């Protein structure tokens, strides 16, 4: 009897779930008639989301059609509007206003994450972001159009709200982007706002002086220990009452799991991620796995959990796809683990900083770290070649992003 494994999402986790499931099916000489692997997403492409702070974001996608075809994964264009775990079915909206149901024997939720947008007055109407592709394109077009606006301090001031990884990378890239837009850096201003008492609070004290030095070198002003109380067409108001005149406010203050996780009757963490076991199953919900940014997964035995990052998503995806297929083929599953952890934070024209381990030990800085970051961004995180053997080989769960 034919079995069906459905993967929702074509991000890093979804892509590797499909590759890994197909790899196991191929390894076990199982036919596509016996095990169908289906991937559902609005477009058959991988958005290179970690690079959306860069100029020309419309170029930062990679097609998946040929890869999926090469490994015999069925692609379905659409958005999953609902999940019925009791009936083991999903409802797909095909983009034309029509919806239809598809059944599954195993489901892998790889729906990713989205920007956290609190109900701050004016935030939805006036703030930009680099969260999704459309958001980044909108921001890029806005920046390109700034020189056609009346000259003012607000026109040449950009405020980035959120001093985490995304906020730092967006802010440190902006001086060069504004220089390219205006033809000069003179008069331009970038202000970074972070509600914690220091920038990159999650990175820790080791790398922080390097980041702070980069911000200073690039002339980026910082406001720490302050939140945002309002955004309007004229700028942003901070919690101390200061109003910064700006025509460009970029919100980069936190992410949460995509809303579809709310339809799964199971435990979630504060970020909306489904709590999973070591094989990435959702406890108490038969047939459902969660992975990538949709999953809260222990990455080792000493209390560390996978982060919402492509580094963790790729390996999480490989384990989820393998394990979902393994269950359908009555094969042993593999416990997810990812003891190795690195960060490589882009600092624009000031280089980058590379750390290893959960204690964030600095290993590379400046141009050396920048070269490493460039390799990650332009080679490592892109899909494999659309050649069956190479594509399947790239998805061994024990080897994916084993840094």
TrEMBL record:
Cofactor(s) needed for function: FAD
Q: Does the keyword Flavoprotein apply?
A: yes
FAD/NAD(P)-binding domain location? 4-315
Gene3D superfamilies in the record: 3.50.50.100
Xref: Pfam families: Pyr_redox_2
Q: Which InterPro entries match?
A: FAD/NAD-bd_sf (IPR036188), FAD/NAD-binding_dom (IPR023753), NADH-Q_oxidoreductase (IPR051169)
Keyword field = FAD, Flavoprotein, Oxidoreductase
What family classification does the UniProt entry report for this protein?
Belongs to the NADH dehydrogenase family.
The protein in question is named: Pyridine nucleotide-disulfide oxidoreductase
């Amino acid at each position: 009897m034919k079995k069906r494994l459905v993967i929702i999402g074509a991000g890093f986790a979804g892509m590797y779930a499909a590759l890994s499931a197909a790899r196991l099916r191929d390894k076990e000489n199982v036919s596509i008639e016996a095990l169908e692997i289906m991937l559902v997403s609005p477009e058959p492409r991988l958005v290179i989301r970690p690079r959306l702070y860069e100029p020309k974001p419309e170029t930062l996608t990679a097609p998946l059609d040929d890869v999926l075809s090469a490994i015999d994964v069925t692609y379905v264009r659409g958005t999953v509007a609902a999940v019925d775990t009791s009936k083991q079915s999903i409802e797909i909206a095909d983009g034309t206003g029509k919806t239809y149901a598809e059944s599954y024997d195993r489901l892998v939720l790889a729906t990713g994450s989205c920007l956290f947008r609190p109900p701050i007055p004016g935030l939805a109407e006036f703030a930009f972001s680099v969260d999704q592709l459309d958001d980044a394109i909108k921001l890029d077009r806005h920046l390109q159009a700034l020189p056609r606006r009346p000259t003012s301090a607000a026109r040449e001031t950009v405020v980035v709200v959120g001093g985490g990884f995304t906020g730092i990378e967006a802010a440190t890239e902006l001086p060069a982007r504004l220089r390219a837009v205006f033809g000069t850096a003179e008069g331009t201003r970038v202000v970074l706002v972070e509600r914690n008492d220091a920038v990159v609070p999650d990175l820790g004290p080791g790398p922080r002086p390097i980041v702070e030095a980069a911000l200073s070198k690039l002339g980026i002003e910082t406001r720490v220990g302050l939140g945002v109380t309002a955004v309007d067409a004229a700028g942003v108001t901070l919690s101390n009452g200061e109003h910064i005149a700006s025509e460009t406010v970029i919100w980069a203050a936190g992410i949460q799991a995509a809303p579809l996780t709310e339809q799964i009757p199971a435990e979630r963490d504060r970020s909306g991620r489904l709590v999973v076991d070591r094989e990435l199953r959702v406890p108490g919900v038969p047939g459902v796995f969660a992975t990538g940014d949709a999953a809260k997964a222990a990455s080792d035995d000493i209390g560390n959990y996978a982060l919402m990052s492509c580094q963790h998503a790729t390996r999480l995806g490989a384990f989820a796809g393998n394990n979902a297929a393994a269950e359908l083929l009555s094969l042993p599953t593999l416990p997810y683990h990812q003891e190795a952890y690195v960060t490589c934070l882009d600092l624009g024209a000031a280089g980058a900083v590379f750390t290893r381990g959960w204690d964030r030990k600095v290993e590379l800085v400046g141009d050396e770290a920048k070269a490493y970051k460039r390799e990650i961004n332009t080679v490592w995180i892109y899909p494999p070649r659309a050649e069956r053997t190479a594509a399947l080989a790239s998805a061994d769960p024990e080897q994916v992003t084993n840094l």
